[in-house]
Each structure stands twice: as C-alpha cells, then as structure tokens.
Amino acid sequence: MGxxxxxxxxxxxxxxxxxxxxxxxxxxxxxxxxxMKADAEVKKAEAGVKKAEAERDAxxxxxxxxxxxxxxx
Length: 73
Fold this sequence. Notes:
The protein is an all-alpha fold. Helix content is about 95%, strand content about 0%. The chain has one helix spanning about 1-70.
C-alpha cells in the first residue's frame, strides 16, 4: 500500500499546485484589468483637461476678436 499512498499524496500535491496556479493567474488577470481601468480613467481625465483648455482658448480668442471689433485694444 506504500506505493498507492505515495501516488495519492503526489496527486494531492499536484492538485493543490494546479489550484494555486489557477488562483494566481486569476489574481494577475484581475490586477491587469484594474490597471487598465485606472489608465482609462487617467486618459479620460486628461481628455477633459484638454477640452477645457481648448474651450478656454476659444473663449479668449473670441473675446479678443470682439475687443478688436469694438476698438478696445
């Protein structure tokens, strides 16, 4: 019975190792997804800043144009 017990122990250890690898892989995938979401949020915020800056510049240019038409320079 020693060989059968050794084989059973080896199978149990292999099963546990496979389970650990699966859990680690799932955790790595979840971490990667979290990083991608965070990167997307940063890019979205950066796009918002660029849009706000463009709107500011457009408003400034419009106001300068109006001042020139009025002769306020």
